[in-house]
Amino acid sequence: MGNLTNRYDKTYSAILLGSCALAILGVSLPLLFGQANLAMLGSYLAVPMILAPILYVRQKNNRDYFSEIDSKYYYLFPALFFVFFAISIALLYFNAIRPYSYYAVITVMATLILAQILFFPTGRSRSMLILFQSSLLLLDIIWGVSLNYFFSIERTDSFFHSWMIQILVEEGTINENFDLYRNFPLWHILCAAIYKVSAMDMSYYKAMYLVNGVIFAAIPPGVYILSKKLFTEEKVALLAALFVSFYPEVLKYGIAALARSPISFLGILLVITLLYHRSFAATLMAIAMTISIIVFHTVSIPFLLAVFAVLYLLQRIYGVVSEQEIVDADYLAFAVAAMLAYWMYISISLFETIINNITASAPDEVSTRGVFLAPLNELFNYLHYSPLLFFLLIGTLEALRKDRIPHGVKVVCIAALLFTAVSFPGPGLLITKLGGNFNIDRFGEYVFFLIVFAASFGFYTIYTRSRRHLKSTLIILFMILVFLSVSNDFIASDNPLVKRPFYTFYLTEEEVNGFDHAGNTSRGFVMSDFVTTRYMYFTYYREKSHILEVDNQTQNIVKGNDSDLVLIRKGELERRPLRFYIAEKGFIKEPSIDDSLEYYYPSNKKLWSSLNKYDKIYDSSSISTYI
User: Fold this and answer.
1) Residue 360 and residue 355: Cα distance in Å, rounded?
2) CA distance 269 to 276
3) 256 with 154: CB under 8 angstroms?
4) Rounded-to-integer distance, Cα 381 and Cα 377, Å
5) Strand, coil or helix: what is 565?
6) I want to staple 257 with a disulfide (CB 3.0 to 4.6 A). Which of 77, 115, 212, 337 is the partner?
């Protein structure tokens, strides 16, 4: 036992000192190499890495206490929550684009839930009400984007998935258009079946977003159950359910409604069953959940296994007893065998895809180009990670220092801290080989619950140790965290506080009508920006879709022949740049839209004036088409 305690003490000291050292190195080294933009970006991680250890050491010996309010005032807070919920719906209904006031209302709603957790004694009925509000808050944010706009597109993958649902509904078959998803089309089958059975009077993509929202509404209760099992503290579990309702990756995949989005919920169910591994029924459930994930979205299982492998390795290093283990060797062996068996059964092409991703040369550009194009804008849109890292460090230090904390919790907190390296925007994502070929940025979807546990425990720890004034400061910091989480350009590209050089994550009805008109009337290619090309490629006009090519020397538009149409999203251009293909050696019939793309701004007069030599054949407030 003493040896284990010594290991935790050494890890505690390493994090306490190493955090500050890494923060200083992370900012100073880029400066030494003349990369001031990287140093600036690193500050969002460096500040909490310095402040958290200092504040924890100062507060670690303080007595825990809560300032609770008389229980007769409790129901005032949920009543106010529902009032502000109604206000948020009204703001969505009466505004074409979500206003900043909507983000403020969401922040107030989250703070009212926080007040119910912190200021009043817990009880079963109160916990259920808090969980309901947390789920409602998450739905408000998710559906406030995906169902609020005509066509929410996130990173444009929604085009493909909604088209697959359309094919299933209209043709009732899985055809060659499913591509790799022919091997795991269950997401599309689920959405298509619900669409048919319920006779929904809405577009296919709206049905997809509706189904995904319902699934994600179950994440806060799932996180609560999992956290309660680990920490046994009711308030920590309720805080975890609240924190997950505005966690960046949860919002991102909740809005996107991709085929792998439901894995966020299925992964939580799997971990819950693993925690009850002493039960035969739970073991059967764990086997069933593993097979379900493999079949539902088979590419997700390697990421989950990597997470479980790290947890297992930490359990071995720190000698966690079997009663407190989250994952054991038997389960890992079964999951790996099941995954490989399924892959061998369905298609050898999956192995080829994985091998190609590993061995392919790294792309020329890094994943986060905004770091170099607009570092200040990028920094602001990362700021919500600073309070999260601050609370996570506090939680990890507390878990390692206190003997009463279960060993399983200690391992979870250590793992959460380690996984920030691949789930938070930072140096790891700037390594192009990892960010591009290995899709390392996807880890955020599979480790969010670990980070939420550690962060909510850290908030609980520092709040209970603090005096009145610092308690007020922490609540304000929480409000800043929520506000920045829902207003950054990754989640709120419709109306962010600070824009990045990227496209808006939704299409208007007028834009879609313009795309369809061009597809119906064109006798050649429809040449347009990245978003339009992606939209048309996943429609029945896919043979006409073509990225607009711009001569890098003359800045003139390059067409294949006179029958090609040039479509310009002028409405989008008023807000953001458009992304075109850089043509170095004349027109390319089949360019790769993954490489050699560049953003073109309204200030590029030479490019836009080249449109004058073409005839305008279609015009609306959002779209102009030329031939």
Assistant:
1) 8
2) 11
3) yes
4) 6
5) strand
6) 212
User: How many CA atoms lie less than 13 Å away from 418 in the CB half-sphere?
Assistant: 15
Summarize pLDDT for 302-339 with one digit per residue, the tens: 999 999 999 999 999 998 887 888 999 999 999 999 99
Which of 512 and 183 is assigned the larger pLDDT? Answer: 512
Residues contacting 276, CB < 8 A, separation 6+: 229, 282
Residue 293 C-alpha from the chain's centroid: 19
Instruction: Name every residue whose Cβ is closer than 8 Å to that of residue 120 and which is 6 or more positions away in sequence.
Output: 68, 69, 71, 74, 126
User: Rounded to whole angstroms, how far apart are CA atoms 431 and 389?
Assistant: 21
As given in the structure block, the two tokens for residue 310 are: 């790290």
pLDDT computed for residue 367 by the predictor: 47
CB atoms within 10 A of CB 358: 10
Q: How many CA atoms lie within 13 A of 378 on its CB side?
A: 20
Burial-class residue 318 by CB neighbours within 10 Å (0-12, 13-18, 19+).
middle
pLDDT in tens, 31-89: 888 888 888 888 999 999 999 999 999 998 888 777 788 899 999 999 999 999 999 99
| Amino acid at the residue 505 | F
Cα 110 to Cα 60: distance, rounded to the nearest angstrom: 27
Closest CA to 43 of 499, 378, 370: 378
Is residue 246 a contact partner of residue 179, using CB atoms and an 8 Å limit?
no
pLDDT at res. 155: 83
Question: What value, to the nearest 5°, has the Cα angle with vertex 367 and ends 336 and 383?
Answer: 100
The residues, ordered by sequence, that sit 6+ positions from 168 with a Cβ below 8 Å of its Cβ are 174, 185, 188, 189, 192
218, 211, 236: which is closest to 135 by C-alpha? Answer: 218
How does the average pLDDT of the chain come out, rounded? 90
Beta bridge partners of 507: 151
Residue 351: its pLDDT value, please?
64
Task: For residues 183-200, give the mean pLDDT.
Answer: 91
In sequence order, what DSSP letters do the residues of 214-229 get, joined into one string?
Answer: HHHTTHHHHHHHHHHH
Cα(257)–Cα(255) distance, integer angstroms: 6
